Description:
Blueprint: E1 2-3, H1 5-10, H2 21-25, H3 36-45, E2 50-51, H4 65-69, H5 76-89, H6 95-107, E3 128-129, E4 137-140, H7 143-147, H8 149-164, E5 169-171, H9 181-185, H10 189-205, E6 210-213, H11 216-224, E7 232-235, H12 236-245, E8 258-261, H13 275-283, E9 288-290, H14 320-331, E10 335-338, H15 341-354, E11 361-364, H16 365-372
Parallel strand pairs: 3-5, 4-5, 4-6, 6-7, 8-9, 8-10, 10-11
Antiparallel strand pairs: 1-2
Helix pairs in contact: 8-16, 12-13, 14-15
Amino acid sequence: MIQAKELTEKLEMFACMQCGKCSAGCPESGKSGLNIRRIIRELTVSPLCELKQTDPLWDCTSCSACTLRCPRGLQPHELIIGLRGALIETGEIPVTARDSLEAVFKHGNPWGRAKQKREEWTEGLAIKNLSDSQAEILYYVCCAAAYDPRVQNVARSLAGIFNESGSDFGILGIEESCCGSETRRMGEAGLFEMIVEDNMKLFNSRGVKHIVATSPHCFDALKNKYNAEAITVQHYTQYVAGLLDGGKLSLTKNLDKIVAYHDPCYLGKQNDIYDEPREILKAIPGINYLEFDRRREKSLCCEGGGGRMWLEGTNTGERLAETRVKDAAEMGVDIIATACPFCLLTLEDAVKITGFEEKILIKDISELIVEAL
Ligand code: SF4
Ligand code: SF4
């Protein structure tokens, strides 16, 4: 049980007019016990109230659809992050979430994998390491792309694209550590501050001025939560769209596939990056590009954000990634393209669960670019 008066004041939740646009747009509302409008009401009507039903707070995917829709300009998703923080302080945290936070603290990644293995994905590739070389761009790999065998192919694809375009880039290798995005979203503000401090020291010691990130989650944290004004931070789709515009990459092979793009929440809804991924896909020869009905600001969340990669959630119904795959099947899509490691993993699980494994492929945009080079 938590008390949240200060939090509701700080986030100006007393300005809420209970219109319900936040909960109406919430992907978890109705599927789980999460009702953000009701939470705000409970906290504001009775400011000293103790929020009794706290489990649904862990269902939030931190997609920020609520914040995007609020006519009062409030940030309900930040309220949930703050409430999670209060829960953590009282020790009320699901065990899998606690384990992932401990793993970030001890090993610099939420899976608890060995730091020494962080650059295994580079085997056989010519990539500068900023510990002994200089480069214009730091390619910030991401824990998922460094360790997960499926997502490692995204890191390898991006390194290939950067090399092909003559980009001067390097990585931090085993010195790279978690960006802390999901640590913050799970409510562990103190650990996030430590992560930012350590990462900023490392970036400054390596003279980093420009970061290109694999993951929208790393991109969002580095760009919006690090106060690193002297560093330009881009998601890779922004950087690669620039390479295409500048004639530094040419896509020549015909892919001859029907492709639809799934907007990652941390890239689209939270950072307004909708066009660059589409520009890249449309530049690939032979692709028949289709749009999902639920796209851009109204895109369906994959349920991988806000720490949900390490949380089961209370919802037992169909996962949104499964709904996405079924939508794609109805459209006759061959490939769902995305640009986020978590979307890639949740959608791949969903094609297996829904039985569309033989019909629909899930690809990161970087993988499609490499196929078209
Ligand atoms: S959309 Fe904004 S004003 Fe409306 S209920 Fe939600 S928080 Fe309150
Ligand atoms: S961030 Fe997304 S999942 Fe969380 S309350 Fe808002 S709309 Fe719902």
